[in-house]
Amino acid sequence: MSEWDVEGVELDAYFKRIGYDGPREATLPVLTALHRAHTGTIPFENLDILLGRPIEVDVPALQEKLVAKRRGGYCFEHNMLFSAVLATLGFEVRRLLGRVRMGHDEYWSRTHMVLVVTVDGREWLADTGFGGNGLREPIPFAEAESEQDGRKLSLVRHGDPQWILRVGRPAGWFDLYGFDEFPQHPIDVVVGNHYTSTSPRSPFTKRFVVERQQDGTCRTLAGRTLILTAPDGTVTEHPVPLDDIGTVLSTDYGIELSAEGLAAVRAAAERVGR
């Protein structure tokens, strides 16, 4: 029995949430279709932190939040749920931790989670939890370049961490995150999630970010700014009036908040300025 408890996954409800009605075999086409459906439907967001709610990463809590309540989450939430779905379907899954880089070289804490999935003896990098800048579908777990929806991606080996995922930008390759292949355990995810959701050093405790990728364009709501990143990396920014934040959350990301929750989000947006 695996130490990763995948009990609590309600496949029918999950498939309905992401709009998937295809086969349920452990094949590459199924993995690819599920990955695309998940990333195209469930947004990346950290709103509950600003609402004073704890972030839980056990499967029943994730099923309730991301599926039943139709909310989003960040990497630990997305990839813990997705890995449980995959394991239930019979996929072989490795959970790994990494460091967000976003163009920087310094060492940040291990606050990102990725998955390596084996299908017919071949490994694939899967990651449903890096928001609009991340993968839309799995890529070969090997040094190689890929293209998804007009975006160029590259997975390379590079010192410590051993692997770096990069995206093509007008100025060249841009590092998204790095990770190694050291085995991880559930407690490692719990610790990383606790730091990310509670530490005053974590960027997620200072401001909110909501993202989704649609037709290759990353749509990021960061405070009072809507940032659109085109497939070629070109960025445009649009101010969002405080009174319109609720509408943007609803129409662009499918997130409905209570009046109290929306007031808290608006206050956070006003406090940080963007």
Describe the protein:
GO terms for molecular function: acetyltransferase activity. The protein is α+β, with helices and mostly antiparallel strands and 274 residues long. A hairpin with a 2-residue loop joins β6 (144-148) and β7 (151-157). The strands form two sheets. It has an eight-stranded antiparallel β-sheet with strand order 5-4-3-2-9-8-7-6. The chain has a five-stranded antiparallel β-sheet with strand order 1-10-11-12-13. It has helices spanning 11-18, 28-41, 47-50, 59-68, 75-89, 186-198, 245-253, 259-272; strands at residues 44-45, 92-100, 112-119, 122-126, 139-140, 144-148, 151-157, 163-169, 172-179, 209-214, 217-222, 225-229, 235-239. α4 crosses α5 (75-89). 32% of the residues lie in helices and 27% in strands.
The average pLDDT score comes to: 91
Poorly predicted runs are none
Major sheet: order of its strands?
A: 5-4-3-2-9-8-7-6
Rough shape? globular
GO molecular function: acetyltransferase activity
Pfam families: Acetyltransf_2
InterPro entries: Arylamine_N-AcTrfase, Papain-like_cys_pep_sf
Protein name: N-hydroxyarylamine O-acetyltransferase
Throw out a few tags for this protein.
274 residues; alpha+beta; Arylamine N-acetyltransferase fold; 8-stranded antiparallel beta sheet; 8 helices
Quick recap:
Keywords: Transferase. By secondary structure, the protein is an alpha+beta fold.
